Amino acid sequence: MEDITLRQCLKGAWRDAASAVRHMPIVFLVAFAAVLATGTAGYKAQFSDMAAAGGSLSAMTSSSTGHANAAAQGLISLGVTFVQTLVLAVLAVFVVRFAIRLHAEPGAVSAQPASAAPPMRLWDAGVRRYFLLCIALIAGYVGATLAVLIAWIGLRLAGMSSGTSTAAAATLAVLAVCGMSYVSARLSLLFPHTAAGGQIQWRAAWEDTRGHFWFITTAAVLAILPVIGIATVLTVVAEMLATAASAGSLTMGLMVVQSVGTLLYTATGATCSVWLYRKFAAILRTEST
């Protein structure tokens, strides 16, 4: 554990993210192209399906066709999410390892193997474990959403009014988000730990973050505020440059802004996690030696 203040954590995360972009431009360009291409392909596929369904009266009145279109759009969204999650996971691992090397002290490799990032490879054990954690996190939020939806349906079937059931479902949704956010913060040290080559150690990560939920949450939220500001400014600029007659150019501009914002968010989140790991990881480092 290192004595790092919140201010040092934030400034270090922003500085390391900018340094990662400068030193790994090819990695970021490839990730940008992949995120933009998959996002654009998914949008065009879903838009074309909706346009085809909307232009045909029989398609609109046929329940089987509607279910087929909904299933196709769901598969497209799932595929796009999977590919983008994989791309962003690889990018995050590269950024984490870069940030760890940036602050590595002489002799750290021999003294603390888990603290010294392994060589950068496209698909190694660290990337696989990091990607598995991302999938587990997404699955947790999806599961919480389904639980709230099932609860709402159950309340409606039990005879509750629409307003009462909606209010109850909204309360459950807030509780589910708070619960998932708490669990995510308590297990957040696993992301830089696995990226650096460590094993997935749930109990150690949970113990290392005990009593530090608010610090971790505050750092994570404040770290991405500049990214939100940049994305907002770029969105406004894209809307100002696009004319009413060029809806296609506006859509492409917004897709570019979204892709850039996603990459900046990923890089900043990765470097912030490294600083939090340096501050709080004690048992994780000990059990990896």
Automatic annotation (TrEMBL):
UniProt keyword list: Membrane, Transmembrane, Transmembrane helix
Transmembrane segments: 21-43, 70-96, 130-155, 167-191, 212-238, 250-277
Protein name per UniProt: Glycerophosphoryl diester phosphodiesterase membrane domain-containing protein
Annotated organism of origin: Caballeronia udeis
